[in-house]
Amino acid sequence: MPRGDLDTLVDERVRATVRYAAEHSTFYRHWFASQKIQPDSIREHEDLRELPIITGGTIREHQPPVTPFFEFQSVPWRDVYTLHETSGTSGIPKAFFLTWDDWKRYAEKYSRIFVSQGFGPEDRVAVCASYGMNVGANTMTVAAKNVGFTVIPEGKCTFPTRVITSYQPTAIIGSVFKLLRLARRLVADGIDPQETSMERLVVGGESFAAESRAWLSEVWDVPVYNTYGSTEGTMCGECSVCDGLHVPEDLVHMDLYDPTRAGFVPDGTEGRIVLTTLLPEGAKGGTVLINYDTDDTTTVLTRETCACGRTNMKIKSPSREAETVFIGSAPVNRIDIERGVFQQENMDYLNGEYEAFLYAGGEDNNETVLRVGMECLDPETCDKGFVSETFVRGLFAENPQLESEHAEGMVEILFHFAGAGELELHRIAGRPKRLVDRR
C-alpha cells in the first residue's frame, strides 16, 4: 500500500481504536476522564504522542488482586476466546484477553512475515516455541493455515533427531541456542546439519547478536531470519532482504520514546517501543492498549519502500531493556557479551554457550568485575588467551564507553572456561539469564 494510503488507514484505525477503548474498556473510560481527554479529539496517529504513557505496572495495578476485576478486559467473557499471561518475571503476570478476531489479526502479522521470508504450501515447519500462556507458538500455528505450510508443533528443540530424518522439515523456529544445541545433537548422531532438508531457520523470542546469527547460519548453511513478537501484539519480522524488521503498521502503531528526555524520538534515534493496538472499524478487541511502553528498545531504520516491495517501515532488531546493566556510565547489554563470544575466530574453540556475572570490586566496592564463562569444545586444547583477547576486542567494538571505563580501571574482565554443560545456567530451570548483576 502506498505510504499516503497507509497513513490514512492508520489514522482511521486510531480513531476507531480510541473510540472502542472509551466505550468498552473500564480502564480507558476512567483514564480518559481522569486525564481530561476527549476521545473524539484523537484524530491522527500524531495525536497519540500527546497522551500519557502506560506501563506493565499500570496493567498490574488494574487487575486482581489489586482490583476486583480485570479493568483492561474490553469484551464480555462470552467473547473471550483465550486468555494469556506474560511470564511474570518482573512481578505478577499481566493478563491479556483475546477474541477470535484478535487471533486472526495476530496470525495475519505472522503470515506476512512468513511469506516475506519465502515460506509457502510446500514447507514443513518445526515450531520450537512453547505452547501455552505465551501467544507466539499458537499464533505461528494459526498463521500456517493462511500460508498453507505444515506445522510440526514440537514446542521444544529437544525432540529426537529422527524428526529431522523422518519428516524432513524445511524450517525450524527457535532460539539461537536451541538451534545450535540441536545441530550438535545431530552431529553426535552422525547427521550433518548442512545435509538435512533444512532451507531456512527463524529465530524468535529473544534478541541476538549479528555474530551469533552468522555462526548459526554457517553451522546449518541456510539463511537465518529474525522475528520479534510479544503477547501485547508487536509481531515484526525480517523479509528476504534481511536489513530490518517490518512493522505491520496497519495492525499495530509503534512510536519510540526516550524516558530520560520525557519525549518521543525521531527516526534514526534509539527509543523505547510504545505501541497502540489498531482495530479496524467495527472490530472487537479483548485487550486494547494505547501508548503502552513495552520496555524494549529499537530504532526506526526507514519508512521508504523496501527492496522486497513492502512499504511498512523497518526497525532495528529490538533489545530488552531488562537485559541492560550499567558499568559506570557505560550501558552493557547481553548482546554486547554475546558479540564478544561469537567472534568468528573464537568459534574454532567454543560451542557458543556463555554466561556473565557482575560483582563489586575494589577497596570501596566502586569498581566492577565482569566474569564471563564460556564453554569450550575441548577445554584441554582451547587457546584461552586467544579467546579472551578476541572476546575483549569484540566486546569493545561497538561499546567505546565500556572500553573507556576499562582503560580507567573501573572494570576488570575475568574469564572462566568450562566444558560442555558445565556452566551455571544449565542448573537453572527455565530460560537462562545470561547477564546477571550480583553487585
Protein architecture, described:
The model has no long low-confidence stretch (mean pLDDT 94). The chain has 3 domains: 3-98 and 230-317, ANL, N-terminal domain (Rossmann fold); 104-228, 3-Layer(aba) Sandwich (Rossmann fold); 323-437, ANL, C-terminal domain (GMP Synthetase, Chain A, domain 3), CATH 3.30.300. The strands form 5 sheets. Strands 4-3-5-6-7-8-9-15-14 form a 9-stranded mixed sheet, sandwiched between helices. It has a 5-stranded antiparallel sheet with strand order 11-10-12-13-16. The relative contact order is 0.11. Helix content is 28%, strand content 24%. The chain has 439 residues and is of the alpha/beta class. Helix 1 crosses helix 2 and helix 9 (334-341) crosses helix 10 (384-397).
Number of distinct helices: 11
Helicity level, as a percent range? 25-40%
Mean pLDDT: 94
CATH topology of the largest domain: Rossmann fold
Shape: globular
Beta fraction of the residues?
15-25%
Short account of what is shown:
By secondary structure, the chain is α/β, with parallel strands linked by helices. The protein has helices at residues 3-24, 26-34, 56-60, 100-116, 136-147, 162-167, 176-188, 210-220, 334-341, 384-397, 400-407; strands at residues 82-85, 95-98, 124-127, 150-152, 171-174, 200-203, 224-228, 236-238, 245-246, 252-258, 263-264, 271-277, 292-298, 300-302, 314-315, 319-320, 324-327, 330-333, 350-361, 367-376, 411-418, 435-437. It is built from 11 helices and 22 strands.
Which SSEs are present, and which pair or pack?
Layout: H1 3-24, H2 26-34, H3 56-60, E1 82-85, E2 95-98, H4 100-116, E3 124-127, H5 136-147, E4 150-152, H6 162-167, E5 171-174, H7 176-188, E6 200-203, H8 210-220, E7 224-228, E8 236-238, E9 245-246, E10 252-258, E11 263-264, E12 271-277, E13 292-298, E14 300-302, E15 314-315, E16 319-320, E17 324-327, E18 330-333, H9 334-341, E19 350-361, E20 367-376, H10 384-397, H11 400-407, E21 411-418, E22 435-437
Parallel strand pairs: 3-4, 3-5, 5-6, 6-7, 19-22, 20-21
Antiparallel strand pairs: 1-2, 7-8, 8-9, 9-15, 10-11, 10-12, 12-13, 13-16, 14-15, 17-18, 19-20
